[in-house]
Design a protein that fits this description.
- It contains five helices and no strands.
- With about 80 residues, the chain is an all-alpha fold.
- It has one domain (about 15-85).
- The longest helix has 15 residues, at about 35-50.
- The chain is globular, with a radius of gyration of 14 Å.
């Protein structure tokens, strides 16, 4: 991909693409049935997005992924964070 494309995304979002790629690589072989792994991913996404996740919301996301079998991706976490009122 064009490096300028990623630079534009970084400028618009304030998110470092290197961090996104590192996170994506770490997710490839992650065990999403393991609570500790899921919590670490949620914390990492929170750091990258610079958006804190309250403990109650973190617990809901973990339950949703581990118990309800939802897939863990940025959209799942973002939707849960945006729906929190």
């Amino acid at each position: 991909m064009d490096n300028g494309f990623f630079k534009n995304i970084e400028k618009k979002t304030g998110v470092n693409m290197k961090d996104i790629f590192e996170l994506a690589n770490s997710l490839q072989n992650a065990n999403f049935r393991d609570e500790k792994t899921v919590r670490n991913v949620i914390k990492r996404v929170s750091q990258i997005a610079n958006k804190p996740v309250p403990q109650e919301l973190e617990d809901q996301i973990v339950k949703s992924i581990i118990n309800d079998g939802k897939s863990l991706d940025f959209n799942t976490i973002a939707n849960m964070m945006n729906n929190k009122k």
